[in-house]
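Hi support team,

I've been running sequence recovery on a batch of backbones for a student project. Most finish fine, but this one hangs at about 90% for roughly twenty minutes before it completes. I'm not sure whether the input is malformed or the queue is just slow. I've pasted the structure tokens below so you can try to reproduce it. Let me know if you need the job ID as well.

Thanks,
M.K.
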């Protein structure tokens, strides 16, 4: 006789990226082994009658304990960050092992593993950030790291300490092409931002709200087009991260219309915040919402919703970049209000990403449940070589599951599980929240957080399966 199932999630309304159906889900040793009607009793049982069950979220763009220039420090490490992820229905995170200029990539990866070890409550993989593409990096380190399971890397077109010039980006894209990896591009024109910032500073316009004026959509549009051209030249797919509004969307549509394999990501801040959240006057409060690209306006939010609905966007990520508002390490570097140039860029969002999209997207009638699963779990897993182990409810997949509770809830930072002292969504009304999150068959959240520090495993990534390789 077969060994009994360790767990049966019974009477689930299962949602996948392709179908919704009613079934029981049987789990053995952390994996889904049976899906069907009236499965035999499990050692444990969870009754999901009347509830939607989706794959656990894959947050493919978040920053945890990423080294920053002193005094700035991220508020979340792998402990608090993955705790917060689990409580919001995310069971896989992919943060960034960032190469400092002059550092070897290998050293950056080793350092990042030390930061994660013994802390993660859910599974994790790493993207790389390539800021110094030396011949050694291009010829040896990157190819070796790709072969070892680091199959995606981000390049920046802005930020002095990270940005690459076009020739360097072409070099990195060539490695991605030769080795089947995926390059993610932060597309904003650095020189335009610097020129605008200096003019704003000369006019005394340094409050947080001026950040949005230093990074208008034009700078994102130009860089997005350039990134598409660079990818066309090398003949390699790219993924444009954190797309904020109409002008970048138009460039991506243009690339697609020309048959180019351009993938795109957007984030909750471009659906739920506007530039007004950076302040209507010169008060400093808006520093909380300083991120790049900045949030735009309501018309652009509608453009982003359209792109989610019609397939323009491949993935929906949080871009969780956790900085406290108060204190010496976050939005007030050195403990003081600063000109916007010096405000650390980024907002928290790991825990609220899935509930916001489920509430406003699915229950708000803007996207289907299948599209929600595709954007938040299946496609990110495919894009970064984790599918079908992650992002799927299928035989053999990890039993990473979310059982949803559809009911009113108001976002309060006091109820969240990150270590950040604010959420940009304070007071936002939701229509759903995870009732239960399972990571490889273990309950990590059921209204209470069940710590599993160190049980989250590192996941080496395969090459992406979003497109066919020639
Ligand atoms: N880019 C990111 O991807 N995250 C935070 C800030 C930024 O500019
Ligand atoms: Zn970025
Ligand atoms: Zn980011």
């Amino acid at each position: 006789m077969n060994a009994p199932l360790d767990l049966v999630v019974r009477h689930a309304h299962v949602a996948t990226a392709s179908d919704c159906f009613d079934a029981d889900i049987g789990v053995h040793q952390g994996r889904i082994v049976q899906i069907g009607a009236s499965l035999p009793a499990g050692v444990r049982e969870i009754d999901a009658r009347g509830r939607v069950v989706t794959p656990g979220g894959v947050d493919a763009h978040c920053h945890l304990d990423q080294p920053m220039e002193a005094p700035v420090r991220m508020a979340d490490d792998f402990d608090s960050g993955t705790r917060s992820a689990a409580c919001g229905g995310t069971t896989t995170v992919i943060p960034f092992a960032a190469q400092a200029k002059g550092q070897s990539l290998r050293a950056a990866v080793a350092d990042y593993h030390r930061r994660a070890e013994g802390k993660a409550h859910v599974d994790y993989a790493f993207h790389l950030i390539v800021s110094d593409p030396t011949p050694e990096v291009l010829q040896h380190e990157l190819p070796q790291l790709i072969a070892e399971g680091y199959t995606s890397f981000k390049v920046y077109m802005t930020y002095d300490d990270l940005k690459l010039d076009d020739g360097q980006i072409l070099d990195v894209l060539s490695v991605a092409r030769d080795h089947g990896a995926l390059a993610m591009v932060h597309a904003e024109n650095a020189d335009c931002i610097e020129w605008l910032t200096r003019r704003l500073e000369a006019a005394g316009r340094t409050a947080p709200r001026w950040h949005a004026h230093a990074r208008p959509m034009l700078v994102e549009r130009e860089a997005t087009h350039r990134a598409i051209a660079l990818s066309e030249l090398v003949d390699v797919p790219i993924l444009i991260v954190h797309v904020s509004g109409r002008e970048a969307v138009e460039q991506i549509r243009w690339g697609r219309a020309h048959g180019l394999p351009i993938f795109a990501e957007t984030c909750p801040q471009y659906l739920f915040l506007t530039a007004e959240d950076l302040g209507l006057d010169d008060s400093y409060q808006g520093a909380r919402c300083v991120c790049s690209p900045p949030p735009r306006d309501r018309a652009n939010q509608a453009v982003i919703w359209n792109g989610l609905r019609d397939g323009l966007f491949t993935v929906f990520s949080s871009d969780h970049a956790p900085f406290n508002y108060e204190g010496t390490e976050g939005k007030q570097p050195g403990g003081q209000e600063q000109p916007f140039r010096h405000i650390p860029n980024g907002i928290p969002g790991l825990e609220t990403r899935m509930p916001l999209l489920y509430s406003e997207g699915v229950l708000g009638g803007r996207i289907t449940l299948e599209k929600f699963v595709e954007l938040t779990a299946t496609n990110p897993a495919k894009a970064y070589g984790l599918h079908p182990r992650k992002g799927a409810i299928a035989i053999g997949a990890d039993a990473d599951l979310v059982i949803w509770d559809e009911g009113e809830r108001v976002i309060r930072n006091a109820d969240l599980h990150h270590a950040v002292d604010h959420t940009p969504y304070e007071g936002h009304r939701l229509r759903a929240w995870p009732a239960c999150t399972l990571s490889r068959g273990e309950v990590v959240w059921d209204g209470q957080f069940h710590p599993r520090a160190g049980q989250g495993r590192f996941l080496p990534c395969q090459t992406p399966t979003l497109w066919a390789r020639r």
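--
Follow-up from support: It reproduced on our side and the slowdown came from queue contention, not your input. The CA atoms of residues 293 and 447 lie 34 Å apart. No action needed from you.
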